[in-house]
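#struct-pred

JT: dropping the chains for the assembly here, can someone run the whole complex?
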Amino acid sequence: MDKKIVFSAVQPSGIPTIGNYVGSIKNWVNMQDEYNCIYSLADLHTLTVKQIPAELRQRSYELLALYLAAGLDPNKSVIFAQSHVPAHAELTWILNTVTYPGELQRMTQFKDKSSRHAENVNMGLLDYPVLMAADILLYGTDFVPVGADQKQHLEITRDLAIRFNNRYSQTFTVPEPLIPKVGAKVMSLQDPEKKMSKSDENPNAYISMNDSTDDIIRKFKRAVTDSEACIKFDEENKKGISNLLTIYSLFSGMTIPEAEKQFEGVGYGEFKLAVGEQVANVLQPITAEKNRILSDKAYLESVLKDGAEKANYLAHKMMRKVYKKVGLIQL
Ligand code: AMP
Ligand code: TRP
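RK: done, full complex below.
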């Protein structure tokens, strides 16, 4: 049996947080043996909000270094930058012709980002999910490991695949999201009603994958919780503590009930310190390795080159099929 195909991506639009790590990248690592995995830097997607060009380039290297430091292996998986494979933009055009503006205007992320970037509501921001659908459909993807916030984008991807297949005959695999049971939505440390986001204006709200041990411990100490002094998982009434328990569980490998047991009768101060230390212990070697890899640009570029070659081969094959189905002349 052929291995199933996995595709996912993160935008190099800021320093990834532990939310990106546990919601997404960490899970990619474990899939590399069982599946044919394709992991991308969604650099074209970042252009939908204003970027500083030199920073975008640097962040792309950083995100790639993080992928590698976290355990993505270029000998097992295809690792590449979206902009190095022109077929992503080409398929976006074709899919645009089967997409309705109304279904894009309804997307939560579009509504959210257009209110946050009211000065720059551009066509790219509206079309963002179609580019994402192209990313996924180009490779005959079966599974897409992502955090909970991407569920709606996966739904439109499936709709577009089905619509295209109905109009032009079976072409695309209809993909399924893989959303982790624990860690699909890590919440802000300052406002546990909001998801942890790398674009939060308050850096105390997130733990970035670049934070030092001291920063990490300080931020957890300041994390907003309730005043009940009882470490129990209760997402209704104790959002802050539940988020910390979730993070602790993800970084220690313990289940949430095991963690609750370990911290029975312990004060919030001591608990927050323990969470901070646990996260710092796991992140420290990853950050160190990331920085080591980052200093070797030639290596990073060789990974991108090799990945682009493999991805272009696969994507080009799919584009020929698509162009043929829609009736374009093949030379
Ligand atoms: P982005 O930062 O938007 O490029 O997201 C990259 C990946 O991280 C996607 O799979 C998201 O679903 C996931 N992700 C982002 N924020 C969180 C969070 N707070 N908790 C869990 N997963 C997240
Ligand atoms: N939109 C995703 C995010 O912000 C990133 C992304 C782009 C992606 N293309 C993708 C994720 C394809 C999965 C598959 O998180």
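JT: nice. The domain at 5-184+297-326 is CATH 3.40.50.620 (Rossmann fold). The pocket of adenosine monophosphate (ligand 1) is lined by residues 10-11, 19-20, 23-24, 146-147, 149-150, 184-186, 195-196, 198 (CB under 6 Å).
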